[in-house]
Design a protein that fits this description.
The chain is mainly alpha-helical. Helix content is about 40%, strand content about 10%. It is elongated, with a radius of gyration of 16 Å. Bound molecules: zinc ion. Zinc ion (ZN) binds near residues 11, 39 and 45.
Length: about 130
Amino acid sequence: MKRVNIKCPYCGARAFLRPASVVYGERAAPGSKLYVCGNYPACDSYVAAHRTSQLPMGTLADKQLRRERQAAHAVFNQLWKSGLMSKRQAYLWLQAKLDLPECEAHIAKFSEGRCQLVIDLCEKFLGAQRRAA
Ligand SMILES: [Zn+2]
């Protein structure tokens, strides 16, 4: 397994790969893991790890940023869940709109400002689709 050395962007402490139950308790999916700030829970910052590679899905996020990313995911997922495009097409659309390379075009890597931009772009797109329907 590749060792990953990531730091918390809020307090600078090192983040550690830990079972998700450390944060979610009994609600954690069995076997799921998170990178959690070494100062957790004083510093409430973490990010999910990929199940197979165990690499972080993005950058560590505090409560506010997690909320923004969840909101951005919710509206972005409507693009492909509605059948307007495939999931792959939706990610290509997002890359083009944000002018990002594929490896960077993941909501788990986005700042609050970029999440808000995703929400605005998706709502605009979905609104235009509704008007055209
Ligand atoms: Zn921290």
